[in-house]
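Batch 3, record 17
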Amino acid sequence: MSHDMSENLPEAHDASHGTDVATHGDPFADPGLPAHEPRRTDIDERAAQRAERQVSLMFVVSMLATVGFIASYASIDADKIVYIFPLGHVSALNFALGMTLGVALFCIGAGAVHWARTLMSDHELPAERHPIEADDDVRNDVIEQFKTGAAESGFGRRKLIRNTLFGSLALVPLSGVVLLRDLGPLPEKKLLHTGWVEAEPSKPLRLVNMNTDQPMKAEDIVQGSLTFAKPEGLEESDEDFQQQIAKDALMLVRIAPEDIKDAKSRDKGFEGILAYSKICTHVGCPISLYEQQTHHALCPCHQSTFDLADGARVIFGPAGHPLPQLKITTDEQGFLVATGDFDEPVGPSYWERPR
Amino acid sequence: MKKLSARRRHPLAAVVVLLLALAATGGLYAAFAPAEKAQADSSAQSLAIDEGRKLFAVGCSSCHGLNGQGTSDGPSLVGVGSAAVDFQVGTGRMPAQQPGAQVPRKKVIYTQAETDQLAAFVASLGPGPVTPDSKQYEPSSDPVTNAEQVAKGGELFRTNCAQCHNFNGKGGALTNGKYAPSLEGVDSKHIYEAMQTGPQNMPSFPDTTMPEEQKREIVAFVRSTNDEPNPGGLTLGSLGPVTEGLFGWIFGLGTLILVAIWVAAHTTKAKKS
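Prediction for the assembled complex:
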């Protein structure tokens, strides 16, 4: 600070400026507001000009960065990969676009902040707090006016008008409720059944491997393996494949029959091969984080954990009920088949869901 | 004794002696002949099994039992096959450091030759998946075929593997401290073997439900995700919204708060110096 500006400080002109309240006698006295201190740019024209140049410089840098953004967009090849120290191998185009746009926006913000702090007016404006209620006169006047208005309208006397008004006000929100119909149509029975509903004891449906699109024999499923299956006849080229597979998807595991704790579940399987719905009963994520030693299946969304050795009982997490299990057996050629649908709807709970 | 000697002139005595002699000869033959045959066999395979047995006795038998039959500390290795040994020992998972939720990948302490000998010994205990050769797991070097394999492998990966290993193979958490490891930098052979054998809590994907060619396609996909550069710079683990959101909240908003504090704390007021 080579430039001497001490003669510009207010103290030099007016020593009595500010609120020099005597607080010596009374420690709880209102100290008042602190003295206004000017900024350097307020009292030193050269500092103000310097600040002005700094602000403009930042805006100019922002302009240059924007030009750089457009230039790099036009000139850098999208496939070019460069090495930049902490980031590793990155796309040169992405890096250039991000840096230039970041600098352009930052400089506008920094320039604006610098401008406001150094050059915009520096008045201190105390806003004192008062009670927000109106004074008694005003309140009495309003109450008086309300009573007069009520008497003149005859609201209390003409009951028919009053009651019909209440009625119409009560009914108006119904139109909003009716609009909720647009959320429909209701799913009807669609949630109750899956694609396996076409399987019948007389006309069993084969389980098709999702990887190979081939039906499977029991000996193909080895202990400790995990296989995904779909019903025979459902092809990926089908228009509604995604809607169908969202309900039909199966995960097949094979557990040593003596390790299966739930006898009902063992009976639904075939020689230890169990077919469970792949759809979590919480909000319907596909679950298949299967641990072959513990026989736990875990849902990646909210960590619901099912014990597949114990009828897919929920052992952790928000899922409300066990995974539905599909009853499977083999046909005369030895292929795994289902003879019916799941006993209960797959996927998340809903009000009409039968227990 | 007196009873026996009293009948030694019985007409059937000769028959009894003959039968006893035949039984003794047959029994002795049965007892010694196979051992002799094994001694005579000096092929490379049986030498490897022999060396493997010695290595096994030193490094593995305290948990898996002297004959790989398993103990309370380690599972039986009968029927796991050479592929499982090659995977577990070749990635340093075995020998295990300590019991726990999961045996982690560590520094490999056996050479490939020693691993092969151990694998040969374990394979001799019972039939199981065989160590694959590079024709089975190495993706095609032809760029067009390779691109095709990567595309198919990506689809298979998303159906069979992504649920645990994340959509780009970065791994993820399982229950009770277990986790699916990252597939970054894992040998193609070990990826193939893991699918074949289902190590630890990973389910297996045998050739019957996932043919060899599909496993090769998955390896091709994992290779391509490993080699792929990251256009955006910091990957934050490529885990998706969790790390990205956390980064945004902590570093993005944190920086903004620090800037705001700095702006407000540094007064521009002139001070008489």
